[in-house]
Amino acid sequence: MKVSVITPSFNQGQFIERTLRSVSDQEVPALEHVVFDGGSSDETTTILASFGHGIRWVSEPDRGQSDAVNKGIRATDGDIVGWLNSDDVYYPGALARVVDFFEANPDVDVVYGMADHIGVDDVAFEAYPTESWNSVRLRDTCFICQPALFFRRQVVTAHGLLDESLQYCMDYEYWLRLVRGGARFAYLPEKLAGSRLYPQNKTMSNPVAVHKEINGMLRRYGPVPDAWLFNYAYVVVRSKIDEQKRPIRFAREVTMRSLLASLRWNGHISSTLVRRLFPRLSRFS
Q: How far, in Å, CA of 264 to CA of 157, rounded?
C-alpha cells in the first residue's frame, strides 16, 4: 500500500528539517511526501531545496493551512493519507505499523494512534490524551492527535476535503464529519507521532480564537457540549484575570461567561450546565 504524507508549511524553518527527516526515515515500500508551503520568508525554502530525499514541494501564497492540506491531498495518489504539520514528527516505524494495521483490517477507514506533546527540543514532556474509540465521546473532547491519524484515500472520495473556512479546528471538524458520514474508526494503542506544543504555535498563541471557532463548528453537529462552553469561558477569563491572584472573581467570571456562551451558541441554558456550575443545586433537581 502506498502512503502519501502531506505537510502544510509556513515559516517553520526552525523545525521543518526534523519533520522531513522523520518522514524520510520511515521504512515503507511506497511513500510519497509533498510539502505545500505558503510562501515562507524564513529559511524554509532553502531547507526544502537542499533536502534531496525525494520530497516534492511548492512554495506559493495560499489561503491557509486547510488550503495547503487540500492541495496536497489532490496532488497525491497514495492508498493511505497522513497529514504532518511542519513542526510535528513521526516516530520511527510509525508508517509501517499503520500500513500493517490497514492491511490486516480492510473494514477500517481511519486509524489513529497514541502520541506525545513535544517541546522545541523534540523531548516529549507529556502524553497526548488519546482515548479508545467512542464516537459520542468525541463531541465532548478531541481525543485524537492529528499527526497520529491516517485515513484511506476512499475517505476523501466519500466525504470530501477539509473545510477551508476553518483556521484552527479543521481537523476536528473533519473527524466529526467522517463520523456522521459513517466512516469506520479504529484505535491503534502505539506511539506514532510527536505533536509540538510551544507558546508561539498557532493553537497556544490564540486560545480564545481557537475555542470560539470550535464552538461555532460544533453547533453544526447539534448543541455545543457543556465542556466546550466552559472551556471557552475559561480561556476568555484567563486572558483578563489572574486566577491565582483573584480566584473568587475568576470563578464568578467563568460561571457567568459559561452561561452567556450557552445562550450564544445553543440559545438556552441546559440543566446539565447549571448543575456543573452550581453543584449544590443538583440536590433539588
A: 35
